[in-house]
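User: Fold this; tokens only.

Assistant: Input:
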Amino acid sequence: MANLVEATTQQQFEDFLAKAGKCLTVVHFQAAWAPQCGQMNEVMAELAKENAHTTFVKLEAEAVPELSDKYEISSVPTFLFFKEGEKVDRLDGAHAPELTKMVQRLAVNKSPAGAAEGSGADLNQRLKKLINAAPCMLFMKGSPQEPRCGFSRQIVALLKEHNIQFSSFDILSDEEVRQGLKTYSNWPTYPQLYVNGELVGGLDIVKELAESGELENTCPKAVTLEHRLKTIINQGPVMLFMKGNKEAARCGFSRQILEILNGTGVGYDTFDILQDEEVRQGLKTYSNWPTYPQLYVKGELIGGLDIVKELKESGELVSVLKGES
């Protein structure tokens, strides 16, 4: 496919961006040793078939250290989205549904001058769909990770402070939506917050709701980090939090603990802390255990590599993993 390409140098990367112009370019910072990157490349190949005007670039992260530093690529897979040579969004981790949604959202280009009138009904349908894309939708300049104006930065901080679960749309990436939504909702400025398809308002109204204590009742609450950690710890009877995964450990301690567990014949699940900074930091506090890997059995912390080694040497490891002791 002409729109699914591979870049091996910074120059090739820049050439692909220049060639794409106003059309969307999706760059996958990948690593050959990471199986999740291979899986996401399959997803990209399918998306390339469906989005002929979008360029999909595979880029080996370690081959272009300057770019990886510039765009703060700390783990793979990471996807960056570009228009007119500028980064407009990013996605960290192997999240196929989210990648698909972001491509569909960002691939829409401005209508060419002189395009047929009467597309207002189509735009309204599109706006309605976007407004209802999540129970709580924020239309802002930039993204929650990188707000592009002070008002957007303030409203994101307020929503996070009050633990509100929300999705966002970057109006800078789509002029049609940016102008159309002002008319559609009769609200001339941004950011704009919607709950269940209804306009709540802008920054001032959200501030008032926060001050009166009504914001939590108006917007859906996010799942607390503690609840999230409990859920992940209990995903399987034996859970290992490590750097990397069963197929590819990303540090020596994780590799050693995998070898020990594989030798027991007891099944276990893993969670890659490099893919989720919130879990990586939160679990240290939650379990009062500062390092990784961490092994849990039936929701209880067993310990790290040293304790697992001791249990193996004492002959207790299998019975501990089976929850018999």
